[in-house]
Structure formats: structure tokens, C-alpha cells
Design a protein that fits this description.
With 160 residues, this protein is α+β, with helices and mostly antiparallel strands. It has 5 helices and 7 strands; from the N terminus they run αββββαββαβαα.
């Protein structure tokens, strides 16, 4: 992986160490600079992205529901839900619904990363079954292998 600044490289190293301490080898894996963690009925993607010339952001993102039936009621509901969440936000890319939360990388503590992972996973886990029941689609664990991760999201953005 190529880093934009020293803080991004340091944060990436720290995240890798923290995840190896927090999860078994069969629970998390690393692919193209991103980490994937199975947690409850969701799969989390954890990435370390540059932010400005000297900072880095740790993005904890849940693959909540893939292939959801997009309509006005869903979009309004997600926006209203974002307003009430104490952290993070839902987003819709194509017909895939994600929940993400960002942490600054400088001085990232192990406990802050664990809290972010648990909060994102639990929130996604709380909502995925309800969303699937009302709007269709599949929970992350039911379809994660077909999504292609970050590349899939980037392709969807380019097409739209």
C-alpha cells in the first residue's frame, strides 16, 4: 500500500496491530490496504485514508444491506435516521446501504477503535433485518462476496 503521509503509514500500522490483538486470524483479513472484520450479521471494512497533508482518517464501514429496493420512503427514512444517530451515517451507493464512521488517526487508541467497530457493527446489525424486511435486499453476510468491496462502490459512483 502506498501512503500519502507519515501519519497515514503510522495509523495503518497501529490499526493492523490493534485488529490482530482484538480479533482471531479467521475473523479479520487484509486485502489491498483494507481490513475486513465479520461481526454479528454484518461485515466491516476498515480503511486508513489520508486527510489533508498530514492527517489520516480511520473509516469503519459496515456493509449493511446490499440490493435494497430504493424508493423515496427509504431515502427519507435513512436521512431521518442519520439525524438521530449519535455517530456515523448511513449512505446509499446504487442499491447498497452502508453505515460508516470516521476517527482521526493521529493518537488513535485501541479502545477508541474497538468502540467504533462495536458501535458501527451493532447499529448495522440492529437495522439490517428491518431494512431487508421492508425494502428487500440481503444482509451483508448473505452477499458480501459478490460486492467486490471498495472497488464495487467506486464503480457504482463512476456509472451514476
Amino acid at each position: 500500500m502506498q501512503f500519502v503521509n507519515d501519519n497515514q503509514a503510522d495509523t495503518y500500522r497501529d490499526v493492523k496491530i490493534y485488529l490482530s490483538e482484538l480479533f482471531d486470524d479467521d475473523t479479520f483479513n487484509e486485502d489491498e490496504g483494507h481490513f475486513y472484520v465479520s461481526y454479528g450479521s454484518t461485515v466491516l471494512e476498515i480503511s486508513v485514508e489520508p486527510y489533508g497533508p498530514e492527517e489520516a482518517m480511520v473509516i469503519v464501514m459496515a456493509y449493511c444491506v446490499q440490493g435494497v429496493e430504493v424508493d423515496e420512503e427509504l431515502m427519507l427514512g435513512v436521512l431521518e435516521l442519520n439525524h438521530t444517530l449519535p455517530f456515523g451515517a448511513f449512505s446509499l451507493v446504487g442499491s447498497d446501504l452502508f453505515l460508516s464512521y470516521g476517527l482521526f488517526g493521529r493518537n488513535l487508541e485501541r479502545s477508541a477503535l474497538l468502540n467504533a467497530i462495536a458501535a458501527v457493527a451493532n447499529t448495522s446489525d440492529d437495522y439490517d433485518d428491518r431494512i431487508v424486511a421492508k425494502y428487500g435486499g440481503e444482509r451483508a453476510l448473505d452477499r458480501i462476496r459478490d460486492t467486490g468491496g471498495k472497488r464495487r462502490r467506486e464503480e457504482a459512483i463512476v456509472r451514476d
